[in-house]
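Researcher: I'd like a structural prediction for the single chain below. Treat it as a standalone chain; there are no partners to consider.
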Amino acid sequence: MEGTVHLLSDTIQGVTATVTGVQYQQSWLCIICTSKCLQKRHVCISRLDRPQNWGENSCEVRFVILVLAPPKMKSTKTATEVGRTFATMFLDIAFRQKLLRTHTEEQFKEALLHQSHLLSSESKAPTSKRKKYSKNSIYSQITPKSQSLQPRDFLAVGKGIREDFARRFPVYTLDFTDGIIGKNKAVGKYITTTLFLYFACLLPTIAFGSLNDENTAGAIGVQKTMAGQSIGGLLYALFSGQPLVVLLTTAPLALYIHVIRGICDDYQLDFDTFYAWTGLWNSFFLAVYALFNLSLIMSLFKRSTEEIIALFISMTFVLDAVKGTVKIFQKYYYGHGKHDADHSFAGKLLGLGPSLNTSFHAALNSSLLANLPEPISVSSPPAEHLGRDTAVLSLLIMLGTLWLGYTLYQFKKSPYLHPCMREILSDCALPISVLTFSLICSYGFQEIKMSKFPYSPSQSLFKIAKMDSLSLAAVGSAMGLGFLLSMLFFIEQNLVAALANAPENRLVKGTAYHWDLLLVAIINTGLSLFGMPWIHAAYPHSPLHVRALALVEERVEYGHIYETIVHVKETRLTTLGASILVGISLLLLPVPLQWIPKPVLYGLFLYIAFTSIDANQLFERLALLLKDQASYPPTHYIRRVPQRKIHYFTGLQVLQLLLLCAFGMCPLPYMKMIFPLIMIAMIPIRYKLLPRIIEAKYLDAMDDEH
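Model: Treating it as a single chain, here is the predicted structure.
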């Protein structure tokens, strides 16, 4: 019939074309149609309460723009042109999120008018001015990966630091005011993220502090580790160029401290002085790297190499948790079994093996002891041998902490409760799980002895080491250790910063690799002099910190749900608040912090490891080996690379990971110290060896971003 309107016959939908393929913007749909019964144009915009599935490539529609117009209109006022105008507005993902946060129709209209004014002002601006603005914008994103390396780049002393200042200084005040002042406030998200970051920093600090206490005979304990974490975190939060990066002491650093203590014991050296000299040499080399712009070398690290190192770091967290649990079982569970075999009086007398029934053992012991003359005493076994229940409860507490934390972390994807409540529970997953199982362990099982971290109050928290008590040979040895340590710092600091600044995170305020490396050198200089553990950028804490401050939009593609980051609140307040809370926590030693049992700390390590592998492409491709091919997700590399090549590439990455583990997890301490060099060796492996096995076009496709 003439004049009939056929909805969905003509639609406009946003697409994003990249080198990895085409992605549909499924959250909005513009429908255009004409009817002769209309006298003028009409536009209706509807925001749906819940995403609706309107067919292929429209699986989660939240906004529907309906444009009705007469068939005879001027070329600039047709339904198609009006639809294009509104489609241009809705292409902006930040604008769509702004519309979702409006509460009234007036706010919705105001947001539409504001967006239209922005588009009209940009279209009226001359092309030359628009280009100049985009180039010199204070929000320009410049990373090492966007620069081509030239020899002169390394000879321009201090150039990288100057550029970092020019890029980050204009937005310094915004790092404190964004989300606090203005319309788009995010105070609630800042509070939950600060709590998450506080627990994510405090608990590993306690764990590594107790490890350092054992390795150094109390020279570096929990108290010094917490003090160094608080001071270093405060300085970095105030003066760094990339405040979303989190500094922390790590397992490799604890290993270096252990090696230094062993050298001091072997050669009768003063530990505090030798430790300070090693740290000073490390800071010296880091300052040289920063001044000569060596952070540009990180552009040679491909995504696949970064993910190998990231997965290795996650595996070290799992290994630390497993090793700690094994020690508990060796002390309590197997120690109790040894007592059964060795301390059974009747078993010794008659030569009965450990397989004898326990009740029969007890009856036999009782009957023999009853017939022996008085006095006879049987010494009670040590307290640590009385706790198989301690070992089993420790395992349950560790797994329970992991289960509750990871379940709450994934709760934002569930259909339960209000979206705001789901987000709060997800952001607070770590503190909730830690507090819950600490209370369960402390009050629910008071009769069971649990393993707790050691605490020995230090009377010389800020005592400076005597730098003139070493010989020149010892200082030279410290220089060698400092150089190897600086390689670890250089790779970890730049790699973690690159992962935090990944393109998919949509950070807009720019980077500061060179300045931050120099700042880390300055911070660790002070920590070295006062005998506090060194700190550098921590994985996966930094990417998780970015994720906690992000607003995301879900997308559906061929039945698979993806989350896309809309924007991230780039602030210094969360790291600043977490560092202050860690410092205040010094007042909570030993009570109540010692109420946190070691199994909870191990559960925290597992939680950090599991949450960090969510977006790891290497782990995703390992999972493909166990999946039916029909169930493969529509990832860009699956659409562009043959399946056999994908599995070849995964296998080669696994071999590199095993090589890294062979050195990084070797029981020989001196072997572990050179594993940063293995990380550097992955660059020629990626550029020289892998292209001989897999075609370069396939390698580039799998190294591309999503």
